[in-house]
Each structure stands twice: as structure tokens, then as C-alpha cells.
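User: C-alpha cells in, sequence out, please.
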């Protein structure tokens, strides 16, 4: 028989066998198709979402040929790159240009003759919304002009046609609560406009902005400001003017046109220049540019790693299915051998089965990838924040993905083919499996590889070599993979004292390691990656939370006056806050205190300001050991935990945190009463409240106290204005007071923005100046955008001189989403692997189940046995995957620790705190919820009724 005829017969047998065992075939096809589907969809999405140069130009220029921008430097020669983004002054340009020499540039004069253009002006503004007021950007541009197609697209309503009309982006409409037909008022000029349409920027779907006709907003705003001093002036340095130019028909805007505009101080981004750039010899700026290093090699390596891991997952999951199929077809394979078929021809039959199912899976996966990408395209575009230019398909990449699925199917059938070829014809025909002892060398090799991989990963983490970390982690996982058959075999011994069903499940898993071990390995591989990323993410989040410097105590909001002279408006502002924010309880009074002139308000001359300072006592007990002589040696000698304790100590607290103050300067001393202690400081101590009532200040940072007293140094220096009008006139003088204080416990030194609370009577007694600054509120939850807009509008009506500041919290939403996605991914893989193994177990152990029923086992045994078999695979894989995932996570955290220690050598106050935080939520979901869910699903989907088996012979 020729080679071609032999393989043709093998493929014919494989095709018929696949059609005969439709359930098992569908299982293998699904396993191969799912990864192919994911890679195909990812490739299509990436290629379509990443815009081409032409698509980027359309998003920036619309249908125009170029964008001309005056850089505001006057008619001075510039140099730019052909992309129109990089530009600068030539080397021979003067370093400075006196203000009186700057002249405005006649930008339209730099356009090619015969050009048509649109003027684009934009300015930030505050506008009204359905909820209140919000900040946005208004652009004056005739967006109905055909030159804007591709950059601005109308989605609802109509383009603005009159000066009192505007269009809004869909993102602005959603955030503001407005709709087409509503009216919006621009604060400042107080002009009202009607929203005639909703538009979107295909490249910036999340942009919240407004569009008006040229001359509809900015010019009237400026005229109103010129006539009325009370009108809000245009924000400085924010008024941007650009020109969209359509060149002469057939000519466009060329590189000589760009160079001519550069001579006048204008930067140009031209379509035909970007698409067909001139040679470097014609680009003056090219001589001074450095080329960036290509990252294509790194991206290729990353892509190859991901592809290899995907193939490994499929082989591990699909391999047992082919093994079980080969065993169930052993009589057929034996007949092939009895008819003169060689061992190679028997192997060819099994390999042909892998090729057939792999090819079908590849085709199904590619087709489903196209369908899902097209179906979920709008959702993907909204998530990415930009529209696809078009669905970009690269045939060779799609073909490569399909070939990858085909090769994976063949590789998954390789080991079963070798085993089938080794079986004797007699064993195949009689149905005996034969007995093979497990390899004793493989576990030893696996243990050595595991230990070596852990050592390499740890060394890579300590030395800062991430390549060694990745390589060591892969080695450790491969070593653990080699040990799985022994671990699975050990499981059989654990069931001696368990009830019948779990005992059978454990022994079945141990006896059939060929299908149990790969499934456990597949679960382990998926869980290891998820746990590694989740552990690193949780640890980094904990580090960011430690380094985070809050501006206010969590769960509070501060109502502050922007102009203390207008403090009479505070009662109305308090009403606005209480009606629009989720506050609880009465507000706490907050006042500011200072000595001499208040330069933060009047911006007086440098020598006309007073100052107020808490003087820190000298001595070891009051000085931060991480500052000054010997600090670097100490920082490198102590542990990270000890370094963290020192940085959080009262002596180092002010050195470690930025000088955020609720008062007028950095002294962090405020005037308040007992309500401020309980609502903001969270110091619920009757002794502290009693001290404030008696005129004794409460010191929150004990490092400034000595023998229960603090030193307060005040410089009373008055400007000429205050000498004539201040309530505390007098000549410059310096006073030093020793004040008895109530010293709060050390933990209150970390109270944001406040160091000491002074009673009003004490400030008056010391001759200090004080005034009401605002109020502190306790929030029941974080305010929504609508509530924030509402309170801003209410404060505007109350007098425009107060604002609300809420506590800034460390960002965790993105990290939480990452952890959830990782848990879901690993959970799906775990469920899939466990379900596959359970199905194979049922197919492979049907005779055992029949025997159980024959000896009187209840019908529910089939259900419970399937559930426990699924549970064993899922739980074992999750536990091993968790252990494997900790290796790269810990090694990478060691790399971060090394970098932190390097920074600490430069500045001992730099945090070296690099914790390793276990993602217990993710691990609990994977180790408890997913295995139990897998077992319950397997039990629920298993029939308890016995199917009669046909007698052989």
C-alpha cells in the first residue's frame, strides 16, 4: 500500500469514527475551537481597533488636507517633523523672545493659494446641566461642513444652524442628563443655547464637549467681559485657535507648503505629507532626532509565549479525549493490525483523528471568531473608546491561527497514537488494557526541575532580571507538571476512610492517571497564571494604598470659602451642601488662624507677611531618624516593616507626607471645637473635648510636644494695607509662646491636613488673627456625579465664593475589575477541564458503573460519583495552580523591593514597603466556589438511570 493510500484509509476511518462518537468528537472540536475563536477574535479586534495612519488622519483632520496651528511664539521660524506632532525651535534660534517683539501671525496668509479653510476655536467653560453645573470644553466649528466628515458624526437631531444653537457629544448628554431640545447656559457670559443634535467623535467616544457655530460663544463672552467687570473673563492660555485647510484641487498641502508655514511660526499636519513623507535630507529637524528602539522582538516573544501556552492548554485537555477514544476503538485498531496493518498505520489512524477534529475545530473557531467580533463590535468600540475604521482582516494571520488549531489537534493525538501503536493485536481484540507501571524517573526529574525553577525565579527577582523570573516560573510549573501523576496517585490513598462514592472517585482518578493528570495540569496552568497576576495586583494595590496621601479623612467633605471676606455667604452654602450631598449629622466648624498680614489672600509684598509656626523640640525623641546624618545607613540596615513603622511615626509623619493644609499655609493649625474632634479627627475622648472647652489646644502630632507643652512662634508683620485697616495693627514683632496642650495618641498624627486644633479663646488671647473658613461634614457614601453637579450649582447660587472638597481615595476600581476578570477566566477553564474529565470518566468507566448497579448500588451513586470526580480534578488543579502562581508573583515583588531599596539609598524617606498580599477573594472563589459548583453541575447533569449494555458474543 502506498503512503498516500495508507493515509487516505486512515482519514476515512478517522472520519467515520468521529461521526460514530458524536459526543466525544463535539467535545474535542469545542476544546480546539474555543481557543481558536478567542485568538481569531483578538486578532480581528486588535487589527481593527488600532487605527492605520490614514484612519488617524481622518479622525484628526476629517476630510481636510491639513491642520495649521499658530504656536503663539510670533513670526519666528520653527522646525517640525513630517508627522506634524514633533516640532521645536532650530538650534540657532534665540533663547528668548521679548514680549514687545512678538507679533501676531497672519496664519491664513500661509495657506496655499486657492485653499478653503475652517476656523476652529475652543475654550473651557462651565455650563448648566439637568443636575446642576459641570465643566466642559466648547468648540466653535461649523461641524455641518463636509470637511468634518469622519471626525465629527451626527447621531441624533440636527447640526446647529443659528448662533443660539449647539450640538453636544453623546458622552456629554449622558453625563449631564440633558437631551436633544434642552437648553444649556454658559456661565460667565450667561448666554443660553438650545441643543439641536447629538454627535460623536469616532476617535474619542468618551469626549464630553459642546460644538457651536463660529462667533457664537467666544466673541460675545469677550465683549461681555469687556463691558462688565463682574462678568467672568475667558480663562488665560486656554483659548486655542486652529485652521482646517482644504488645499487647491488636485494639489493638497505639500511639504514645501509646510516648510513655508514653519518660517512664519506655524506648525502643519498635512495628510499627504504624513502618508508620503519626504526623505530625511529634506527635513531640517531630522538631523537632531534620535531613533527609538524597536520593540517588535519583545512583542513577537510575548505573542509566541501566549500561543505556546494556548497550545499547551488544548493539548492537555484534548489529549485525554483522544486517549479515551483510542481505548474505546481498540478493537477496531486491533482489526487493522490483524488485517496486516503495521504499527505506523495504527498510529496514523489515531493521528488522522486528531487532524480531522483539529481541522473542524479550527474552521469552526475561525468562523465563530468572525461572527462574535461582528456581533460584539459596538460593545468593543464603546469599551475601547473609539470606532473601528473598518473590520481589518489579514488573511495570513487568520490562516496561521487555523493551522495552529489543526497542529494542536494532531499534537493532542500524538501521545495516544504512540500508546495505541505499542499495544499488541491480542490485547486490542480481547479488550485487555495491559498493565504499565508509572515512571519512577519522571517525578524525580520534576522535583529537580521544580526546585531549580523556584531558585532561578527567586534569583531573578533579587537581581532584578525579569527574564530569569519568567524562565524560572515556567520551569517551576513544568516541574510541578511532571509531579502531577504522583500527586494524583497519592490521592487514591487518601480515600481509605471516606464514604463509598468519594473513595471510588479518588481511586478512579489515581487508577486512570492518563486522563486525570492532564486535566489537573490544565486547571493548574490556568489558575497559576490568574493567581500570579492577582497576587501581584493585590500586592501593588496594597502598596499604593500605603503610599496614598489623603487630603481629608475618609468619609468626610469640607465646605471651604474661596474668599474669607465673603464669609457671610457660608450659611447659604451650608444649606446647599446639606440639601444636595449625602451628609449625616451636624457640621463641624472650621476656622483658620494666622499672625500678621494674610498674604495668601492679599498677595502682598514678600516682607509684608506674618507667619505662625509650631516649633519641633530638639532631641532624638522628636527628630526623624530617617532624616539627617546616618539616615541612609539606618534605612538600609533595618527591615521593610521597621522602615514602614518609622515613616508612620509622629516624628517622621510630616517629613513623609506633603504639606496639605486646610488653613492658609503649611502650619496645619485650625480653629475648632469638640465637633471637629468627633466628625473629622475621629477622636472620641471626653478629656480632649474638655480640654478644648477650657481653652487648651489639642495636638494631634505628639512629636511637637515636650512635657505636655508646645512652642508656638508667631511673626506679627503687617503690610501697609493692614496697618491702616487691620483689626490688629502694630509694628512687626515676634512672639514665642509655650502652650499647655492635650496630646493625642500617636495614631492621630496621620490625620490629614491638621496638626493642631486651637480653641477660639486661645487664638484671641495670643493676639492671633482668625476667621471662619468653612465646615466639615460626615458623608454616608461617596457623592455621585449628579450630586456633585447639583451642589456646584447650588453653591453658585449661594454666592460663588465657596466650594466643596471631598476625600480623595486610592484608585481600586481598575484593580478590582482585573481581579474579577482573572477569577472568571480561571473559573471557566476550571469548570471546562473538570467537566471534560468527568465526561471522559463516564465514557471510560461505563463498565464499572454497570458493575456497581449490578451489586445493588442505588441509582444516585452515578450522580454523586460524577460530582466527586469533577470535584477532585477541580480542587486538585486549583490548589496546585495557587502554589505555582505564587512563584512568579513573589519573584516579581522581590524585583520591586530591589528597585525600592535602590531609591531608598538616594532618599531614606522613600518607601521600601513592598508587601506580598494574597488575593484571598480570588483564591476562595477558585478553591471553594468553583470546585463545588463544578461538582454540583456534574451531578445535576448526570443521569441516574442505568442504560442496559449489550452483551458481547
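Assistant: Sequence out:
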Amino acid at each position: 500500500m502506498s503512503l498516500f493510500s495508507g493515509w487516505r484509509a486512515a482519514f476515512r476511518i478517522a472520519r467515520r469514527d468521529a461521526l460514530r462518537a458524536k459526543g466525544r468528537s463535539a467535545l474535542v472540536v469545542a476544546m480546539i475551537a474555543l481557543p481558536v475563536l478567542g485568538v481569531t477574535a483578538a486578532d480581528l479586534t486588535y487589527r481593527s481597533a488600532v487605527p492605520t495612519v490614514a484612519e488617524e488622519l481622518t479622525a484628526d483632520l476629517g476630510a481636510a488636507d491639513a491642520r495649521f496651528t499658530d504656536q503663539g511664539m510670533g513670526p519666528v521660524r520653527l522646525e517640525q517633523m513630517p508627522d506634524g506632532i514633533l516640532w521645536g525651535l532650530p538650534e540657532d534660534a534665540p533663547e528668548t523672545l521679548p514680549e514687545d517683539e512678538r507679533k501676531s501671525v497672519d496664519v491664513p496668509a500661509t495657506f496655499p493659494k486657492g485653499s478653503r479653510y475652517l476656523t476652529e476655536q475652543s475654550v473651557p467653560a462651565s455650563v448648566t446641566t439637568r443636575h446642576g453645573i459641570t465643566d466642559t470644553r466648547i468648540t466653535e466649528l461649523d461641524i455641518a461642513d463636509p470637511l468634518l466628515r469622519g471626525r465629527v458624526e451626527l447621531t441624533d437631531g440636527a447640526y446647529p444652524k443659528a448662533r443660539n444653537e449647539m450640538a453636544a457629544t453623546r458622552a456629554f448628554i449622558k453625563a449631564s442628563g440633558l437631551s436633544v431640545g434642552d437648553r444649556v447656559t454658559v456661565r460667565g457670559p450667561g448666554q443660553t443655547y438650545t441643543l439641536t443634535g447629538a454627535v460623536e467623535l469616532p476617535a474619542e467616544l468618551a469626549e464630553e464637549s459642546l460644538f457651536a457655530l463660529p462667533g457664537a460663544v467666544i466673541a460675545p463672552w469677550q465683549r461681555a467681559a469687556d463691558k462688565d467687570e463682574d462678568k467672568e473673563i475667558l480663562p488665560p492660555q486656554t483659548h486655542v485657535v486652529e485652521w482646517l485647510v482644504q488645499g487647491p484641487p488636485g494639489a493638497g498641502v505639500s511639504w514645501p507648503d509646510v516648510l513655508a508655514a514653519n518660517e512664519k511660526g506655524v506648525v502643519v499636519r498635512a495628510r499627504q505629507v504624513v502618508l508620503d513623507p519626504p526623505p530625511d535630507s529634506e527635513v531640517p529637524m531630522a538631523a537632531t532626532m534620535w531613533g527609538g528602539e524597536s520593540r517588535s522582538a519583545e512583542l513577537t516573544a510575548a505573542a509566541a509565549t501566549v500561543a505556546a501556552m494556548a497550545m499547551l492548554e488544548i493539548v492537555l485537555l484534548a489529549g485525554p479525549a483522544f486517549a479515551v477514544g483510542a481505548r474505546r476503538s481498540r478493537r477496531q485498531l486491533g482489526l487493522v493490525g490483524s488485517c496486516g496493518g503495521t504499527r505506523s498505520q495504527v498510529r496514523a489512524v489515531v493521528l488522522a483523528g486528531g487532524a480531522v477534529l483539529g481541522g473542524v475545530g479550527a474552521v469552526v473557531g475561525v468562523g465563530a471568531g468572525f461572527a462574535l467580533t461582528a456581533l460584539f463590535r459596538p460593545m468593543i468600540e464603546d469599551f475601547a473608546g473609539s470606532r473601528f475604521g473598518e473590520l481589518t482582516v489579514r488573511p495570513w494571520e487568520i490562516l496561521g491561527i487555523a493551522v495552529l488549531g489543526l497542529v494542536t489537534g494532531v499534537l493532542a493525538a500524538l501521545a495516544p497514537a504512540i500508546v495505541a501503536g505499542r499495544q499488541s493485536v491480542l490485547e486490542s481484540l480481547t479488550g485487555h488494557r495491559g498493565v504499565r507501571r508509572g515512571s519512577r524517573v519522571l517525578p524525580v526529574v520534576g522535583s529537580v526541575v521544580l526546585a531549580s525553577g523556584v531558585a532561578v525565579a527567586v534569583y531573578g527577582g533579587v537581581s532584578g532580571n525579569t527574564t530569569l523570573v519568567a524562565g524560572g516560573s515556567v520551569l517551576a510549573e513544568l516541574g510541578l507538571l511532571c509531579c502531577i501523576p504522583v500527586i494524583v496517585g497519592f490521592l487514591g490513598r487518601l480515600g481509605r476512610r471516606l464514604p463509598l462514592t468519594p473513595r471510588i472517585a479518588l481511586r478512579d482518578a489515581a487508577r486512570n492517571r492518563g486522563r486525570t493528570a492532564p486535566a489537573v495540569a490544565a486547571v493548574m496552568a490556568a489558575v497559576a497564571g490568574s493567581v500570579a497576576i492577582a497576587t501581584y495586583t493585590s500586592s501593588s494595590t496594597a502598596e499604593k494604598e500605603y503610599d496614598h496621601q489623603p487630603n481629608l479623612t475618609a468619609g468626610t467633605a469640607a465646605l471651604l470659602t474661596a474668599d474669607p471676606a465673603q464669609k457671610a455667604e457660608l450659611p447659604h452654602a451650608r444649606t446647599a451642601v446639606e440639601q444636595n450631598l449625602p451628609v449625616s449629622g451636624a457640621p463641624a466648624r472650621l476656622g483658620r488662624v494666622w499672625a500678621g498680614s494674610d498674604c495668601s489672600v492679599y498677595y502682598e509684598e514678600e516682607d509684608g507677611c506674618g507667619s505662625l509656626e509650631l516649633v519641633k523640640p530638639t532631641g532624638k525623641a522628636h527628630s526623624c531618624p530617617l532624616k539627617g546624618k546616618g539616615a541612609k545607613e539606618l534605612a538600609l540596615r533595618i527591615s521593610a516593616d521597621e522602615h514602614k513603622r518609622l515613616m508612620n511615626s509622629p516624628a517622621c509623619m510630616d517629613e513623609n507626607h506633603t504639606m496639605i493644609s486646610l488653613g492658609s499655609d503649611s502650619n496645619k493649625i485650625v480653629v475648632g471645637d469638640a465637633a471637629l474632634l468627633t466628625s473629622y479627627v475621629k477622636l472620641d475622648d471626653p478629656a480632649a473635648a474638655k480640654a478644648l472647652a477650657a481653652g487648651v489646644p489639642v495636638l494631634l502630632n505628639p512629636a511637637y510636644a515636650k512635657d505636655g507643652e508646645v512652642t508656638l512662634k508667631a511673626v506679627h508683620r503687617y503690610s501697609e494695607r493692614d496697618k491702616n485697616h487691620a483689626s490688629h495693627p502694630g509694628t512687626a514683632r515676634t512672639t514665642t509662646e509655650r502652650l499647655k496642650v492635650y496630646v493625642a495618641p500617636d495614631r492621630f498624627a496621620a490625620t490629614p491636613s491638621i496638626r493642631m486644633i486651637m480653641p477660639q479663646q486661645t487664638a484671641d488671647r495670643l493676639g492671633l488673627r482668625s476667621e471662619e473658613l468653612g465646615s466639615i461634614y460626615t458623608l454616608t457614601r461617596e457623592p455621585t456625579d449628579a450630586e456633585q453637579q447639583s451642589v456646584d450649582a447650588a453653591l453658585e447660587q449661594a454666592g460663588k465664593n465657596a466650594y466643596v472638597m471631598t476625600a480623595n481615595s486610592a484608585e481600586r476600581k481598575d484593580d478590582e475589575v482585573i481581579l474579577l476578570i482573572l477569577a472568571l477566566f480561571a473559573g471557566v477553564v476550571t469548570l471546562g477541564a473538570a467537566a471534560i474529565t468527568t465526561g471522559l470518566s463516564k465514557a471510560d468507566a461505563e463498565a464499572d458503573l454497570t458493575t456497581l448497579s449490578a451489586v445493588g448500588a442505588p441509582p444516585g451513586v452515578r450522580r454523586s460519583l460524577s460530582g466527586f470526580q469533577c470535584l477532585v480534578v477541580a480542587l486538585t488543579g486549583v490548589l496546585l495552580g495557587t502554589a505555582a502562581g505564587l512563584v512568579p508573583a513573589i519573584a516579581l515583588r522581590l524585583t520591586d523591593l530591589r528597585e525600592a531599596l535602590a531609591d531608598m539609598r538616594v532618599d531614606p524617606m522613600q518607601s521600601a514597603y513592598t508587601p506580598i498580599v494574597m488575593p484571598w477573594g480570588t483564591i476562595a472563589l477558585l478553591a471553594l466556589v468553583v470546585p463545588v459548583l463544578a461538582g454540583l453541575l456534574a451531578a445535576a447533569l448526570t443521569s441516574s438511570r442505568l442504560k442496559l449494555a449489550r452483551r458481547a458474543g
